[in-house]
Every structure is written in C-alpha cells, then in structure tokens.
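Objective 1.3, modelling of assemblies. Example input:
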Amino acid sequence: MPKVKIPRKSTTIDMTAMCDVAFLLLTFFMLTTKFRPPEPMTVDTPSSIVSMPKPDKNMILLTMKDNRVFLDVDQQQVRVQALEMMGEKYGVKFTKQEEVVFSNLGTFGAPMANMKQLLSAGAGDRDALSAQMPGVPRDTANFDKCELFDWILFIRQIKQSNENDVKIAIRGDVKTPYSTVKNVIDILQKQNLNQFSFVTDLEAKPSTLNK
Amino acid sequence: MAEINTGGGKKVSTRIDLTPMVDLGFLLVTFFMVTTTFSKPNVMELAMPDKTEDVSKITPVKESRAITLILGEKDRVYYYHGTGQDPENTKVETAYFSGEKSIRKVILQHKADVMSNPNLSAKEREPIVLIKPDSKCNFKNVVDVLDEMKICDIGIYAIVDITAPEKEMIKNVKEE
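Predicted structure (tokens):
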C-alpha cells in the first residue's frame, strides 16, 4: 500500500496577537482602576449581605472612628464653595492657595479653628496633621454652632443650586460607639434627612436559611 | 578588510517566544480585574422614621406582631415580645449574633409565630421589629442587626431610641 504522506506542521503558533490583546486589556484595567485616596485613618467597615455598589457622585461621605467624624465630598468646586461659606460663618478667611489645597484634601476632620493650620502645613506634614485632627465638631445641643450640621447643610445647598441631589453615606469603623452614630443621625434628621446609607463590605449570604 | 565571522552565514531567527509575556500580561489583567470589582464598597440603605410626623395620628401596633431588640454592650441582644407597654410583666431574654442562642433564630421564630397567629387578620400577619441600640453598643452591632432584617426578610423594622424603663430592664437581666 502506498504510504500517505502527512505534511508536518509546526506546533508553535504566533503569540503576537494574543500578547496584543493581553496588554490592551491590561492597559484598560490599569486606567479604569481608581486607587483609594489617602485617608487620615484606617477604617474597618462592618460586613453585610447587601450588594448595592456605592455611587461615586454627589455623595457626602461621613467617616466615623471612635469619637471622631470626618467628612468628604466629591467635586472640587463644591468643596471650595462650601469652605468659603463655612469661613464666612465662622470668621476665617482663606487664601486662593489654601482653597486649592482644600479642594484636593479628600477626607478631613479639622474644626474651623484648626483649618488654616492644616491647609497651610507643608505637603509632607499634612497627612500626619490631618490624622491628629479631632474630627469635625458636632455640638448636638446647639445646632447653630454645630460645624458638622453646617457643612452638610452648605454642601446640600450648593449641590441643590447645581440641581444635584446629594446622598449621605455613613462609613463607620466596627468599634465606633453608638453614641457617635446617634449624634450623626440626629444631625441628619435635624435637616430632615431621613434616608441615608451605611457603607459595608460584602459578606456571603448564610446558606442555612434556604430551607 | 577583516570580516566579522557570522558563523558560516547561519541566520538567527528574529522571532522570540512571546508565551511568557502573554502569561505575564494575563496575570496582570486578572489582578486588575479582581481588584476593581471587589474593592468597591457596598451600601446598605436605611430610612429612619420621620421625627416631625405627628405621633398621635399613627395607629398603634398590635403587641403580638412586634418584637423589640435592644442592642447592649459586648455583642449582646436583649429581646422581648411586644413593644414594652407594660415593663413589669415583660420577660427580657438575651441572645447573641452567632452561636446556639442566635438572634436570627429568635427573629425567624417570631416571624413564623406571627404568620400563623389565628388572632391576627391576614393583612396583619407581618412581623414588626423595633431596634433599640443602647449607647454602649457599637456600629457593627447596628449593621449586623440590620443585616439580620435583610436575611430574615423582615419588611417592617425601625431604629428607635431606647427608653428609660428599657435601660432598667436590661440592667436587671445582667444581674440574673
């Protein structure tokens, strides 16, 4: 019988195309990943089974740890406007440069009395100084002088004038005492904000329930 | 002129093996994919009862539908059935977030009881949970108990302030 000749083919394939795809995806993910902004303190959030992602925009984020409350809001323009309004009420004048620093500050917990000190500090010392701050003061006995109340109120006013509805997210450390949580909730309810959300980590739903 | 010896004119292929590079690429892609999807925090929405609303206009809750959970210190949950109108005759018990005496069992039992209670009309057969955090409990307890509401599928629940008689009630439990 005549032998059938099978032509031998090389098993190596051209990897260039695959390499292209891999790096294209890599570039995409690298660019879309947002790294966590620097925070003055580490917060260990409690976990829950809810899986609703936190919206990024139009959000006032209140971070609680121990007895301190820190505040963060998106949009640099809003931050600058709110700082001006707070400065006006509490009698502090800020320079252009300090406003720029504030707009990039991220989460802060400085009382208005210490704000200037924090903003004029060198970039190297600022993180350490921010971590030492006592948190935004919240005097629930006197809402006229409650800085946290004013911050939230002013930010809401600014956002509303831009026709944006602002949501409140509360991010607390596991060990935060309830008295702090209650303080914050009282301040929000004073402004008739009865809906807000708690930031949590994802945890698996218990399987024993499916009976 | 001297010529460079290219080894008898043997041509070296310019192609290199790209497999390790692809491996590396996909490894990094996987890393970024995983970190982007999991680092995003979740939010738990919560609506508090409106304080400005006129309390007298609200129809009272039937005692048999309600269960009150008091969050105490050291991850303890004190609970009693009803809304605590009669503190003298209310039996307060202790539960924990996990283990044999878990609060989940208590809630599920209460839910089952309410749903099969013949004294309630079909409309009323839905449990109501009142959550009263004591000032000594921590944020984790609050989130955990709200989580239990989601797990046990409780539709009606609210965070309410703890009252003075209730503070006394949980003190007595501790002494036992």
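Helices of chain B lie at 19-38, 103-115, 139-151, 164-175.
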